[in-house]
Amino acid sequence: MTLQTDILSQAANQARGLAIDAVHKAGIGHLGLALGCAEMGAVLYGHALSHNPDQPRWLNRDRFVLSAGHGSMFLYACLHLSGYDLSRDDLKAFRQLHSKTPGHPEFRETPGVEATTGPLGQGIGNAVGMAVAGKMAAKHFNTPQHEIINYRVVCLAGDGCMQEGVAMEAVEFAGHQQLDNLILIYDSNDVTLDAMADKTQSENTAARFKAIGWDVQTVDGHDMVAFLKSYKKAHKTQSGKPQLIIARTEIARGIPEVAGTAKGHGEGGAKFADGARAGLGLPADEHFFVSEEVRTYFSGHKKRLIRATNKWNKTYKAWRTANVDKAVLLDSASANPIAAELCAKIPAFPADVKHGGTRAAGRDVLQLLASELPLLIGGSADLYGSTLNYITDAQDFEAGNRGGRNIRFGIREHAMAAIANGMAYDGMFRPSVATFLVFADYSRPSMRLAALAKLPVIYIYTHDSIGVGEDGPTHQPVETISSLRVIPNFDVIRPGDAEEVVGAYAAALERNDGPTLIALSRQAVPLLSAIPVAVRRAGVLKGGYVAVQESTSLTLILLATGSELHLAVAAAKELGSGVRVVSLPSFERFNRQAVEYRENVLPFACQRRIAIEAGVTALWHQYVGPNGKIIGIDRFGLSAPGPVVFKELGITVDAILSAARSL
User: Based on the number of CB atoms within 10 Å of its own CB, is 416 exposed (0-12), middle (13-18) or buried (19 or more)?
Assistant: First the structure.
């Protein structure tokens, strides 16, 4: 089909009008990108992208990610014109309570939004993850007779995104992995929020991207014909390289008073709305205006898109008939594993097992679960030899083997987490990633977004305490566990032995409404064989449970988690029959249990309580109350052998006994 430049030019100006009206009505928002990229939006949504507004999650749709999420009205206007379930009234409710048009695009809130973006650069990382998933899916599901997966991932980013470290980590990874199903459009308008871009950047972007393995084109972003030509070239490439289109644009085009300046970035141009609307040829007496001609064009285009989807559906139906096993595998992507069933598939560990920390137990559990869940993916930030999460029966994901299930991210913890989010947004594969727990601080922004967007990413983060020992305080994450526990909708599980590790993995895999971090130890911990296997595994699913039951009247409760659990068990033996030990591997899961269950585990009547964890103490007050004691570390660690550090910092059985007697 020939590009209809006349009608799409009208659509671009009317999309500008929608953005101006929405920001003006809200009194806040970002106009610059929405106005500067309007022609590209019209070409993408009115001609180039393969998508279906009636089926926003159609399997083989092109994925469009707006990394520069502050320009949300660009995307909302495109989705509205295209016929998604996003009405004129929804546009009028821009940035208002419970609207479908929040200030930044949010996954699950707006049909057609592929990722929650806003923190700059994250969308680039997400798009890379979607491209990884696309390559994996094509390898897993396509056959010579039926190609059901061939979508492209298209990402629009601005100068702010390109300056962020997470973006550069991600594009380096994409170049190395030769993700030629990825198209990154760089809205290059020479402006950042505070000032003109030359105040903070002077690099040759094209040369940089070419050096890290990308194909690069530069084009006038307002020239629809030229932009479409560059897009088609990027779309059809089989160069084995991801594609960068540097689109030269004028920020806030359509508002002469601020166009091309830093003032055009935000809502500064909204006060010139009337003059801008007149200059764009929009009627003075009708806001949120879309002409009948433009609506008719997009309605016709929507029908073409639906016909293309229907054609694909015929191929897909034939594929399912001819490839029953592959169809079952694809269907399993949307099936939710049941934790109890996963636990039942893992044999109990022998009583004499000798593990090098819970990370080693995690290695063994992961292998068994990976064989049960073939769409489970493992990745590590250059630490497979330490995190022990390599899926041994699989191979590396790389250019020559798109079926590999192990992703080597390199030393790119932030991008690793953002890419994992992209895979989770895509929905076909279940990503799990690993590094040392202290490096959660490098991946935290992406982890927070996973919690916000309810993405079921699994983090297998090891070396979880002062047990790291000789590596010293820089690698001893004394505050990290607690800092992660305060992220809403983020589950942290710190298992105390190998059987609790089984429960942790099962709990993480069952969860489909948010991320889970499993914190594992490097140092060895004993298998707590005196506690029944089923009790330990099921207890982790609930977040907390009675590990050692008192045999006489309850006089004292010891609470512990992770590698400190065995210390509490040992202390209880010395303290006598009235002592209960409660294992609390996951505060978040425990706090979600019914009041009756929590009262049964931690009866209010017993206020003599001691909590033990080799980390900061603040969050334990919710469990020990005003009369209890906390044995923890409100300082940084030490460089010495692990057992020496535990003793020096008072995380010992003797310290527990002393605290109990003082109560």
Answer: buried
Arch. (CATH architecture) of 5-309 = 3-Layer(aba) Sandwich (3.40)
**Domain 339-520 in this protein, CATH class:** alpha beta
CB-side neighbour CA atoms (13 Å) of 646:
19
- 382 beta partners: none
Q: What are 24's two structure tokens? A: 């003006």
Contact 493, 464 (CB under 8 A): no
Q: Do the bridges between strand 579-583 and strand 556-560 make them parallel or antiparallel, or are there none, so unpaired?
A: parallel
Burial of 562 (0-12, 13-18, 19+ CB in 10 A): buried
Residues 451-497 have pLDDT tens digits of: 999 999 999 999 999 999 999 999 999 999 999 999 999 999 999 99
CA dist., res. 128 & res. 234, Å (int): 16
- pLDDT tens-digit map of 136-145: 999 999 999 9
**Strands (DSSP E) found in 420-563:** 430-436, 458-462, 491-493, 516-520, 545-548, 556-560
- Domains 339-520 and 541-662 are alike in CATH topology: yes
Instruction: Report the distance separating Cα 60 and Cα 238, nearest Å.
Output: 19
- Enumerate the H helices of 270-428 as residue ranges: 273-279, 292-322, 324-332, 339-344, 358-372, 384-387, 413-426
Tell me the C-alpha distance between 48 and 254, whole Å: 24
Sheet containing 545-548, strands listed edge to edge, beginning at the edge strand earlier in sequence: 545-548, 579-583, 556-560, 609-612, 629-631
Which tens digits make up the pLDDT trace of 268-295? 888 898 999 999 999 999 999 999 999 9
Break the chain into its structural domains and give their ranges: 5-309, 339-520, 541-662
Exposure of 227 in the CB half-sphere (CA atoms within 13 A): 26
Q: Report the DSSP pairing between strands 579-583 and 545-548.
A: antiparallel
Specify which residues 118 forms β-bridges with. Answer: none
Question: Which residues, listed in sequence order, are joined to residue 398 by a DSSP beta bridge?
Answer: 401
Indicate the helix (H) or strand (E) that contains 122. helix 122-141
Q: Tell me the pLDDT tens digit for each residue of 144-188.
A: 999 999 999 999 999 999 999 999 999 999 999 999 999 999 999
Distance CA 58, CA 36 (A): 29
Across the range 37-47, mean pLDDT stands at: 98
Which segments of 556-658 are extended strands (E)? 556-560, 579-583, 609-612, 629-631
Catalytic residue check, 564: no
Give me the amino acid identity at 331: D
Q: Which of 114, 164, 267, 413 is catalytic?
A: 413
